[in-house]
């Protein structure tokens, strides 16, 4: 075999589609092998391929697998699957007969070109295929959604290094390189491809970091830590590492990323796998470094820790890019010493929402202790002040939710309207709140009531308000003392002003519910959202277009707020992501504040509908939806209540 007549690209992900599309545009004969939604889109001619110069629907010959392909001399198999899938795919193709070679298997007749990250795919290929070419790709392409791929390098489509595996030369490499160059790739043929694979691997070990954490100084230090560890391990194993920077000198400007006019690039392959909840190639990237270290009798602790963390993120449904520096320090404790002391101390909580019991106890002994508010309250339990008098955190003052944190109920305002700012200021001064003083709020129900005070004081301009994470039980579990009686502090001097946090009217809430680009969260219990029961309000159901997001799901079984990454994953699944327009309501605007606190921990800003369901349902002109889906309006007629029981206020 002396010439290449067809490229069979196995895998229709971002890289496979980019290679196939650019080869076809250069006039080369291409067949792409796909599955699932990509197969359907290719067969229908509706797979959208976005490049900076435009977006087009691809018309590529396509097959679902080797059973649909007649192999021939002149074919080259381009393995463009994920690394973790390579071995099974190679086994499937290797022993297929080549019709023009008297039925000899592909493994004996046809070359295979591997483009995977890591060092494993070429070894798997060489177990079966006589001729193996390895490739290293710098191609910024992303699988955006089923039937959509974005490739953003411009004007070149990327850089490709090619070499015969394990070393040496092959007469076909020149033609393959020529074809890829014609297809817009900056192409280099190298004598020892594994040196270039190793060089790419020392860069690829940072993919998991890029998938999990937002860019910042700490992540950059973590990236360097992983790269240094990988380089040391590979060097100790006797594998040389090429200098990619020298190879690309003068070429970087030709592969700069540019926005496309259609689907947008969504990040590296690991981030895409997290977003799609698909298999990770981490075991063949960071895991390759761990393997090499262990075979040499050593270890690669940083790469091992990142591999473990990204697999846990996949299992837990953690949203890509949602973890913070505190999580990164917990994953790689060796980074803690690289941070300034102040940054390290602040890392465990950047949300400005929570405080733990130990930190509160320490603050109470400080020269400027915070005002502590006991906000015990529950729907159907009017004995909050009695509970407070029996036992409370030392120095705490009782704040009455019904009379101090709300105006009197009304049909228009609901059961807990926002208080007039003058009335709230009078209450705050009666608690002893001084200008500039910090505030900590707590209850005995996971913060479900205390969050109302947290939100209301921030709405009124108090700069620093924290919720005691884990509520009163966390204080008691830590072994700290309680006191009885009632505190009557000296009057404070705080001045409050309204409007520091966003609020929604009923019309605003209706508009958000109808806006496909926004999300309205219903923080009540699921049975109230579905309209199966309504314990206090006039009609059962939910605002049309609202999504069910019960407040109780913000908490772990022990009553603590869930970790930031878990909350980000939860709200991301509901459509509440950073930058989106998000509104929240509950029964009467109390526990919706808890949802807003959880959203703040997740990095999402949200607006409160203070009247909530109590005001909406009292207006017979307002439509109602029922059932488990956001739905459409059932009409203004009153909904029958399926049952009675406790719900979310």
Which terms summarize this structure?
elongated, 649 residues, alpha/beta
Overview of the structural elements:
- The protein has 649 residues and is an alpha/beta fold.
- Helix content is 35%, strand content 14%.
- The chain has an eight-stranded mixed beta sheet, sandwiched between helices. The chain has a five-stranded parallel beta sheet with strand order 15-19-18-16-17. A four-stranded mixed beta sheet has the order 4-3-10-9, covered by helices on one side.
- The model is unreliable at 340-350 and 633-647 (pLDDT under 50).
List the helices and strands and how they pair.
Elements: E1 6-10, H1 14-25, E2 30-33, H2 36-44, E3 48-51, E4 54-57, E5 62-63, E6 75-79, H3 86-94, H4 106-109, E7 112-114, H5 121-126, E8 132-138, E9 141-145, E10 148-151, E11 153-155, E12 158-164, H6 171-182, E13 185-189, H7 193-204, H8 207-212, H9 217-236, H10 244-247, E14 255-257, H11 269-276, H12 286-295, H13 301-316, H14 325-331, H15 341-346, E15 354-355, H16 357-364, E16 371-374, H17 384-390, E17 397-398, H18 421-430, E18 439-442, H19 450-459, E19 465-468, H20 471-477, H21 506-514, E20 518-522, H22 526-530, E21 547-548, H23 564-573, E22 581-585, H24 591-601, E23 607-608, H25 612-618
Parallel strand pairs: 1-2, 1-6, 2-5, 3-10, 6-7, 7-8, 12-13, 15-19, 16-17, 16-18, 18-19, 20-21, 20-22, 22-23
Antiparallel strand pairs: 3-4, 8-12, 9-10, 11-14
Helix pairs in contact: 7-9, 9-12, 12-13, 19-24
Which shape, going by the Cα principal axes? elongated
What is the residue-averaged pLDDT? Answer: 89
Largest sheet entry: 8 strands, mixed
- Widest sheet: strand ordering: 5-2-1-6-7-8-12-13
**Global structural class:** alpha/beta
Structural Rg: 30 Å
């Amino acid at each position: 075999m002396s010439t290449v007549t067809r490229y069979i690209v196995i895998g229709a992900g971002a890289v496979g589609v980019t290679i196939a599309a650019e080869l076809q545009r250069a006039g080369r004969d291409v067949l792409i092998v796909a599955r699932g939604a990509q197969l359907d889109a290719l067969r229908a001619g509706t797979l959208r391929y976005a490049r900076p110069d435009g977006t087009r629907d691809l018309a590529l010959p396509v097959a679902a697998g080797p059973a649909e392909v007649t192999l021939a001399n002149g074919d080259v198999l381009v393995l463009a699957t994920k690394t973790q899938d390579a071995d099974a795919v190679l086994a499937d193709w290797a022993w297929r007969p080549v019709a023009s070679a008297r039925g000899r298997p592909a493994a004996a007749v046809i070359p295979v070109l591997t483009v995977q990250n890591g060092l494993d795919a070429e070894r798997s290929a060489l177990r079966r295929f006589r001729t193996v070419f390895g490739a290293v790709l710098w191609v910024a392409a992303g699988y955006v959604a089923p039937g959509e791929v974005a490739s953003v390098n411009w004007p070149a489509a990327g850089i490709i290094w090619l070499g015969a595996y394990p070393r040496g030369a092959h007469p076909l490499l020149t033609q393959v390189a020529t074809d890829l160059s014609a297809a817009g790739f900056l192409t280099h043929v190298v004598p020892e491809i594994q040196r270039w694979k190793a060089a790419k691997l020392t860069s690829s070990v940072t993919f998991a970091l890029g998938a999990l954490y937002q860019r910042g100084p700490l992540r950059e230090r973590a990236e360097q830590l992983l790269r240094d560890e990988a380089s040391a391990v590979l060097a100790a194993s006797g594998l040389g590492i090429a200098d990619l920077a020298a190879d690309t000198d003068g070429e970087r400007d030709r592969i700069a990323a540019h926005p496309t006019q259609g689907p947008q690039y969504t990040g590296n392959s690991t981030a895409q796998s997290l977003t799609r909840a698909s298999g990770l190639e981490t075991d063949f990237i960071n895991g390759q470094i761990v393997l090499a270290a262990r075979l040499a009798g050593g270890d690669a602790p940083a790469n091992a820790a990142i591999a473990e963390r990204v697999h846990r993120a996949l299992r837990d449904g953690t949203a890509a890019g949602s973890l913070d520096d505190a999580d990164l320090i917990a994953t790689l404790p060796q980074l803690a010493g690289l941070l300034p002391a102040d940054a390290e101390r602040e890392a465990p909580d950047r949300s400005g929402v929570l405080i733990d019991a130990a930190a509160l106890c320490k603050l109470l002994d400080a020269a400027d202790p915070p005002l502590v508010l006991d906000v015990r309250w529950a729907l159907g339990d009017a004995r909050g002040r009695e509970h407070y008098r029996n036992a409370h955190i030392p120095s705490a003052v009782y704040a009455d939710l019904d009379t101090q944190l709300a105006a009197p109920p009304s049909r228009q305002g609901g059961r807990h309207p926002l208080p007039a700012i003058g009335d709230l200021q009078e209450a705050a001064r009666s608690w002893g709140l001084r200008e500039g003083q910090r505030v900590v709020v707590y209850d005995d129900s996971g913060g479900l009531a205390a969050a109302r005070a947290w939100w209301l004081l921030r709405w009124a301009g108090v700069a620093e308000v924290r919720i005691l994470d884990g509520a009163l039980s966390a204080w008691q579990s830590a072994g700290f003392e309680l006191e009885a009686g009632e505190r009557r502090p000296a009057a404070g001097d705080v001045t409050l002003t309204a409007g520091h946090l966003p609020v929604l009217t009923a019309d605003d809430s209706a508009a958000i519910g109808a806006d496909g680009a926004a999300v309205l969260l219903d923080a009540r219990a699921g049975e109230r959202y579905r309209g199966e029961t309504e314990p206090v309000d006039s009609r059962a159901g939910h605002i049309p277009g609202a999504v069910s997001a019960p407040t109780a799901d913000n908490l772990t079984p022990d009553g603590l707020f869930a970790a930031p990454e878990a909350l980000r994953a939860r709200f991301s699944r509901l459509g509440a992501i950073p930058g989106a327009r998000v509104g929240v309501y509950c029964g009467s605007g109390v526990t919706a504040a808890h949802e807003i606190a959880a959203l703040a921990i997740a990095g999402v800003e949200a607006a409160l509908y203070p009247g909530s369901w109590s005001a909406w349902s009292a207006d017979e002109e307002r439509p109602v939806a029922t059932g488990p889906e956001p739905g459409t309006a059932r009409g203004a007629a009153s909904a029958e209540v399926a049952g009675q029981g406790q719900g979310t206020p």
